[in-house]
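# step 3/5: fold
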Amino acid sequence: HGNTDWTDVELPSAKQQAVRPRGRLEDDKRANEQLRIKCGALGKVEDAHLFFRREMDLIGRLSPWYTRVTDWLYGLVSDYGHSFERPIVGLAGLWALWSALYVLYFTSVDKLHLDMDGMDLALSIAGLSFANIFAVFGFHWRFPSDLLADPGTDAILLTASETLLGFMFLFFLG
């Protein structure tokens, strides 16, 4: 019904559904799918997304073991597209963590430029991290860094992993 209000309805929790047999979980998935479709047709976007999230949780439980990790990550990082705060926090955490890792790396290989003062060095490292996270937008032109003039294998692995993780968080943010 178009005026159905789902805010106070108690739906089975994930813990309650975990003990159900597989056949019941498949029935629950189909029911959530139908409710999502009906809510979407009625223009009830929030309700449709509620049932989409429940459907995705069940798909994650019913899918083969090798695809559960991606379903779990999708739920963890963005609540199946419902949260934009989680990917933003993930991007900020990635930026801070990788900036610290760059400081440790450049200190360990003694590649820090002694002619740079502390603020210039911090800005250069923060800019390098930012440019790697948002590499898809070409920020390396905006934040040129001479820190990677002669990168070693460890530096390449650090920058590549940060770019891949940044792309993942940007994907979940989108």
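# step 4/5: annotate
The chain is about 70% helix and 0% strand.
# step 5/5: archive (pending)
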